[in-house]
Amino acid sequence: MPMLKVNGRTQDVRVPDDTPLLYALRNDLKLNGPKYGCGAAQCGACTVLVDGQAVRSCVTTVGTVTGQSITTLEGLSTGGKMDALQRAFMEEQAMQCGYCVNGIIMRARQLLDQTPKPTEGEVRLALDGHLCRCGAQNRMVRAVLRAAQEG
Amino acid sequence: MTIETSRRHFLAGTGALALGFTLDVDASAQQGPALPGDLRQHPKISSWLRIEANGRVRLLIGKVELGQGILTAVAQVCADELDIDIKRLDITSGDTQLVPDEGATAGSFSMPNCASAVRQVSAEARQILLGLAAAKLNVDTAKLVIQDGTISSADGKRATYWELVSGRELEVEATGKAPLKPRESRRYSGKDVPRLDIPAKVTGERIFLHDLRPQGMVHARVLRQPAYDAKLTELNLSEIEKLPGVLKVVRNGSFAGVIAEREDDAIHAHARMQQIAKWDLPAKSETQDTVYDWLQSQPERLLKIKEQTNSALPAEALSVEATYRRPYQMHGSIGPSIAIGLLDAQGITHVDTHSQSVFETGQAIAELLGADKSKVHMRHEQGSGCYGHNGADDVAADAALLAQALPGRPVRVQWMRQDEHKWEPYGAAMVVKTKARVDNNGDILDWRLDLWSTSHLARPSGKAGNLLAGRALEKPFDMPPAVNNGPPNYAADRNAIAGYDFAGHTVHTHFIPTYAARSSSTRALGAYANIFSIESFMDELAHRAKVDPLDYRLRHLKDERARAVLQKAADMIGWKSRQKRPGHGFGLAMARYKGTASWNAVAMEVTVDRNSGNIRILRVLCANDCGEVVAPDGVKNQIEGGIVQSLSWTLKEAVRFDASGVKSVDWISYPILTFSEVPPITVELIDRPGTPFLGAGEASQGPTGAALANAVFDATGVRIRDIPFTPARVKAALG
Ligand code: FES
Ligand code: FES
């Protein structure tokens, strides 16, 4: 039975090792952040951090991440305090429907962890594999740059 | 402020209204002014607004949140007129048992029809409350002031809304006479109020339908046909039933679905069903390439929507013609459509849905189930952005149907990515032909536009035959006859009548009542292709006349608000001072959406690489006039989003299909604009306080496509009339 360390807590999930992480997180651990968009690593909606790296949970099996530290959107706020990215996305009203936002914030978290003061071009490049059909990209880029400023 | 979360307990909370005197008056007998928006159909104040116990106010609306920020805008308007803090509001939207039926949330109608109604209804409620306070406190209404629901007099007497309303005081019809507040004394309208739904969306709190997990919920997937009208001939149900976790397999004709305890088990079983199902494919031969000839060779319904002849047209006036084409294009929601169905012990089917048309889809589902419409209860929950009629309604029908097989268990159905790509009803392919007769200066004496299109209006509309499942059953429901729409909104021919002043002006719609691929309402309907064509052609004529395209447009345009947005967009990009450089171009376009909604003008700067055919958009500037602005940032967000989506359509998108089905099945085979391709965009609003709200959500689709075409022409001297402008097409056109 795989043990998953998610948002700082280690939990058993009673699923086969080859279960996509996305379903274990959403259905077994009842997390809302990661979303199903394509199931094929094409859109980014399902992104979570595994040991700080943004990975697509729809194509990551549970068995490959046991023991590693998994962070979802819910896990970004600590002690009731929102992550700088979450605050910046609110400040910039950086979405329409918000379905893609989980993945974009998670990927941006990895970027800011590695490159605390990215250029606009670096932000766009980092987010290039994430699709937003509502067309809120520019607002999201502004939000990431704001979060980098206000850190 | 909460949205919907408390609504499941909400009926219990209305006790405060249950007794007391009533002010039943017949509004129509009093001959009051006309009521605004949807208040006309639902004049009773309590249908919209309830003063609840405990200092809360509940707003009930039929329009729903699609990520366009409508709940926030409506809350702003309500809190202002009712003089309460916006935090006191709870909003229930899109629940067919609770809210007024306002039709579909579509067509940029929510501000004019819903917000206008809410504004008036809130003002009326305030007036009634003021009257109640005056009677109770024995003070003249003119001497009372209201602050956040507390009414007080100068000498310190006070009463709150919550004390005053004890019964059916709001169960009266609006009179239309209650005065609206002057703009200066509004606290929220016209200002940027943070959107109410955003906090939950950045933290992962439950706000999406996807995140509902009712007790006992199970997961299902539906086996969709490989191609339109394919017939399921063979499916070994018992093999599927034996797969791990499977609870039920349902088959009815060509409709089949599997229900499992776990979502991953449902997905596995669904994949196996796809492998073993055998189908009869119908003989259909159209493809994305033949569809334009197909459109022009079908039996058509000819609609002469404008016939204005120029009797003074000289026979020798030069004639200019062009033909433009738009392929099938997707809504392309990032989250595939989803619904949760539950058949309860009373025989009511409840469906949690992100449909834009809860009432009519509920009625279609009732027909599908062979049940009375009172037996279907639809509840709107937020979904992924839809931009029109996507898979939302079909999946709601799937969930309702599958729920019948497992009474008492909520059945959650989410489409797989491929289902959404293949089965959503696309924005219809269109052919638009324009023809102008011009004088010696190149000015237009006579203008003619002919358009060919299938339907843009195949929403469920109360009919099971409009639902995918309905047409797949053993005893299928017939697809209802295809419909177009007349004035003032039109559909295929939306914005086909140009907003310019031409002496002769003819517009014919060649409506094709059959389908090559499934099509229905997609953001802006026919307006995208029609404006693309009109504004490209205006540009062509300007260049022929050797007149600046801005001046040329202004020469043919009397409408002051149209001139204003056009001029503003031109100023924003520095039109007059632009420099001519090879491979570098500027383009402009303008339209008033539907001829009745926002005025919108877009200016754009691009470069075109001759070797690769690659278009790079350097910047987009846009001016919009949607009358009085309630939520400035919300409007800008909508317009920006429209620009990005329209750029994506125009640069990249075309659904590929042939006899074996749709070939655009994922984001690789149907690419859309990415972060690094989205250009800088600036939107400025012309605010017109005191004028009617005009929708803005679809206003930028048409002008964006045309401005791009015009900028590409400016950069290269080559006119591209076929969407999308892929590098291969641009390269070929450049020779
Ligand atoms: S759902 Fe995982 S990348 Fe799209
Ligand atoms: S905000 Fe809707 S998909 Fe990105």
Kindly estimate the percentage of residues of chain B that lie in beta strands according to DSSP: 15-25%
Structural class of chain B: alpha+beta
Bound molecules: FE2/S2 (inorganic) cluster
Average residue pLDDT of chain B: 93
> Oligomerization state of this entry?
heterodimer
Side-by-side strand order of the widest sheet of chain A: 2-1-5-3-4
What number of domains of chain B?
A: 3
How many helices of chain B does DSSP assign? 17
List the helices and strands and how they pair.
The complex is a heterodimer of chains A (151) and B (735).
Chain A: E1 3-6, E2 9-12, H1 21-28, E3 47-50, E4 53-56, E5 69-71, H2 73-76, H3 84-91, H4 101-114, H5 120-126, H6 137-150
Parallel strand pairs in A: 1-5
Antiparallel strand pairs in A: 1-2, 3-4, 3-5
Chain B: E1 2-3, E2 49-51, E3 57-61, H1 70-82, E4 89-93, H2 110-137, E5 144-147, E6 150-153, E7 158-160, H3 161-164, H4 198-203, E8 218-223, E9 231-234, H5 237-241, E10 246-252, E11 255-260, H6 263-276, E12 278-280, H7 291-295, E13 301-308, E14 318-326, E15 338-343, E16 349-353, H8 358-369, E17 376-380, H9 392-403, E18 411-414, H10 417-423, E19 430-438, E20 444-453, H11 468-472, E21 504-511, H12 527-544, H13 549-555, H14 560-573, E22 584-592, E23 599-609, E24 614-625, H15 632-652, E25 657-658, E26 661-662, E27 681-685, H16 701-716, H17 727-734
Parallel strand pairs in B: 1-4, 3-4, 8-18, 16-17, 20-21, 24-27
Antiparallel strand pairs in B: 2-3, 5-6, 6-7, 8-11, 9-12, 10-11, 13-21, 14-19, 15-16, 15-18, 19-20, 22-23, 23-24, 25-26
Helix pairs in contact in B: 1-2, 8-9, 12-16, 15-16
Bound molecules: FE2/S2 (inorganic) cluster (2 copies).
